[in-house]
Amino acid sequence: MKKLLFIIAALLLGTAQVAQAWTSYNYVSADQLKGWLEAAKPVLLVDIQEKKDFTAHHIKNSLETNGYPVKSDHDRQTLDPALKLIQAHNYEAVVVVCPRGKGGAKRAYEYLAAKGVAEAKLFILTGGMEKWPHREWVAAN
Hints:
By secondary structure, the protein is an alpha/beta fold. It has a single domain, classed as Oxidized Rhodanese, domain 1. It has helices spanning 2-22, 30-38, 51-56, 73-77, 80-88, 103-114; strands spanning 27-28, 43-47, 58-59, 63-64, 93-97, 122-125, 138-139. The N and C termini lie far apart (58 Å).
């Protein structure tokens, strides 16, 4: 019986990992995002970088959440102020900004989508802050 339960648990875990691997995400390039910002498109930048990294460099007008790596319930809860802003305003796009635009950004994207943010409006910044080339849009505290 224990073996059967173990096999079932392993299959369920494997299925969840495969499903997560097949999840598709919307990405926005640095140049496209810069164009949106210059055109004053209503965009919410949800920056999940750790505090020290956000302080060192972030895109101007980003919402600081310090949610990275977005693995724990506490990390995910740091994104809740973004949810309140999204509900209160009519943003055309919500862009997750993280250090490199990889795992943390995907987890933040999934959390926001699960909380009702329309995926048609939800994006990950390709390459994150590490690849952001537009210094004129960078702020530091």
